[in-house]
Amino acid sequence: MSGVELLAVALVMAVGVVGVLVPVLPGLLLVWGAGAWWTIADGGGPGRWAVLAVMSALFVAGTLAKYVLPGRAASASGAPIGTMLVGAVCAVVGFFVVPVVGLLVGGLAGIYLAELARLRDPVRAGASTWAATVAFGVGLLVEICAGLAMAAVWGLGELVT
């Protein structure tokens, strides 16, 4: 693989890691796709397929953790799934009303309003909203770590294979 092709793979992986933070881009999927292209473009080989297998495991683990950890943490703090669904819908609406920033603002506003309607106490609704925010932050952190680990595995694979 030429230096330009390797640079392209690294660039797509970097965009994928940034894509974890930017909701328009499919973050981990871009990182995994770049690794799959790297594997297949040169005809594979056992080392490259092993790298792709490890990247695939990290992709699945990161994607599952992105959805499972926040849900568990939010429900442990007392926020029901309905509150999370309202937050998700408001996040999507917010994204289109105020691009990029609206996702966060809409999601938080939706969670707060749903919790306020459920609890009828602004202080408890705020605490519950904060717990949900922390839970989503944990999911985002896990996803970023998975993307970085995938890129690191690819980099090590490029050096070794």
Which segments are poorly predicted (pLDDT under 50) over 5 or more consecutive residues? none
How many individual helices?
6
Major β-sheet, in short? none
Q: Roughly what percent helix?
A: over 70%
In N-to-C order, the SSE pattern is HHHHHH
Calculate Rg over CA atoms. 19 Å
Number of extended strands: 0
**pLDDT averaged residue by residue:** 89
Structural class: mainly alpha
Describe the structure.
- The protein is mostly helical and 161 residues long.
- Helix content is 87%, strand content 0%.
- It is built from 6 helices and no strands.
- The chain has helices at 3-21, 27-41, 46-76, 81-97, 101-119, 122-160.
- Helix 4 (81-97) runs antiparallel to helix 5.
- The longest helix has 39 residues, at 122-160.
- The protein is elongated, with a radius of gyration of 19 Å.
- The model has no long low-confidence stretch (mean pLDDT 89).
